[in-house]
Amino acid sequence: MDIQSIKASLLNEDETERLYAVEDIITLRSEELIPELISALVREDSRMVKELMVEGLKLLDTTPHFSSIAKFFESSDAFIRNCAIEIFGSKGEDAVPFLTSIMDHSDKEVRKLILDSLVATGSKYCIPALRAALKDKAPNVQITAVEYLGKINDEESLGDILEIFETSNEPMLRISCLETFTHFARQEVVDTVLDILGGVNMDSFYKPSVFRMVAECGTREHLPFLLTFLNNKNTLFFNEISGSILKIMIRDNVDVLPFEYEKYVINGVKDQNLDSDNRITFMGIAFRLCLKDKEDIFEEFVGEEDMNVMLAALDKLAVLNRERAIKIIERRLKV
Questions:
Q1: Contact 37, 25 (CB under 8 A)
Q2: Measuring CA to CA, which residue among 67, 55, 16, 60 is closest to residue 34?
Q3: 67 close to 105: Cβ distance less than 8 angstroms
Q4: CA dist 114 → 66, 121, 148, 233 (Å)
Q5: 203-226 pLDDT, tens digit each
Q6: Which of 75, 209, 213, 332 has the fewest CB atoms within 10 Å of its CB?
Q7: Which of 135, 187, 140, 137 has the alpha carbon at shortest distance from 161?
Q8: CA 204 to CA 237: how far, in whole Å?
Q9: C-alpha dihedral, 277 to 278 to 284 to 289, nearest 10°
Q10: Cα–Cα distance between 277 and 182 in angstroms, integer?
């Protein structure tokens, strides 16, 4: 099929004809038709045809047409915007210079999509652009940069992210910083964050993210902080609090807590007002503790009506005393 025929087929009302036209462009590597392919993609209605067009633009050398593809970022159609990310991503390092050159775009949403595209390239050369985006005036762009830099554990950006966390008044930006800090797994970061937030007096909005951060990066030294929240005023956060305590106990081989908290944990396992997951996490904490009459306590847990709690307790008891667990099972089977 000649060039003019392919152009005509791209405009054909028949979906099959348009598919054949795109296939011909790809097979013949007709790069002179890339402008037509880009224009056709924007107006195309068929999902199948659009996806083939994107594959074609990924396979062909679109470098001279990057500016046209970048206009997809401004589209009101989310599919078209994502097409730009996918196409630029497929170009790897070849796309990085162009993408970084348009990072000063006036539209904050476009700047965010450019960051997405830079990361999609998989190139290490996108990192300077991500670091620079931490200084962007738009919180959504900063959030994107913070999240990506955290995922790649970019140590050089840690100081800037901490500064953003301390100085920003945007709650969601601060939350993204907290989530990112979990990737760095450093105790000094935890200490700094807790100081900034005011420790136990922090705003409840940040508690879930802080508890997750402490779970991943904290040490036994942070257990007193977590235990402060282990009370009936914070039942909304029990999953995060108890999970964080258990993770630190396992990681640092902790087997003792202040008596009042050991008692609270045991009562938590028995508390039928809590969901199964919470009760089982409390049980995990109890299992780590050097408790007096530990086997008796876990046999009592086996008597709980909640099937999930009962099975978890039976599993733990089997570790402590296999014969005792087997006898309980045998008694249950006889009944």
A1: yes
A2: 60
A3: no
A4: 12, 11, 13, 44
A5: 999 999 999 999 999 999 999 999
A6: 332
A7: 135
A8: 9
A9: -170
A10: 23
Kindly give, in sequence order, each residue whose CB lies less than 8 Å from that of residue 279, ignoring residues fewer than 6 positions away.
Answer: 268, 269, 270, 271, 304, 306, 309
In this prediction the pTM is 0.84
- CA gap 97, 110 in Å, rounded: 16
Q: Would you state the structure tokens that stand for residue 185, as one six-digit string?
A: 């797994």
Tokens standing for residue 60 = 């062909």
Q: Which sign, positive or negative, has the C-alpha torsion 34, 36, 39, 43? A: negative
Three-class SS state of 302 = helix
Counting beta carbons within 10 angstroms of the beta carbon of residue 196, is it exposed (0 to 12), middle (13 to 18) or buried (19 or more)?
A: middle
Q: Which two tokens stand for residue 42?
A: 């924007």
Cβ–Cβ under 8 Å, residues 103 and 133: yes
Q: List, as one string, the DSSP characters of 27-87.
A: HHT-GGGHHHHHHHHHH---HHHHHHHHHHHHHS--GGGHHHHHGGGG-S-HHHHHHHHHH
DSSP annotation string for 114-125: HHHHHHHTT-GG
pLDDT tens readout for residues 57-106: 999 999 999 999 999 999 999 999 999 999 999 999 999 999 999 999 99
In whole angstroms, how far apart are CA 242 and each of 218, 229, 327?
Answer: 14, 10, 31
- Token readout for 327 is 């006898």
Provide the terminal-to-terminal Cα distance of the chain, rounded to the nearest Å.
80
**Residues 144, 117: contact at Cβ < 8 Å?**
no
Cα Rg of the chain (Å, integer): 28
Fill in the DSSP letter of residue 163.
Answer: H
Contact 6, 39 (CB under 8 A): no
CA distance 56 to 2: 18
Helix/strand/coil for 283: helix
Residues of the chain with pLDDT > 70, as a percent, come to: 99
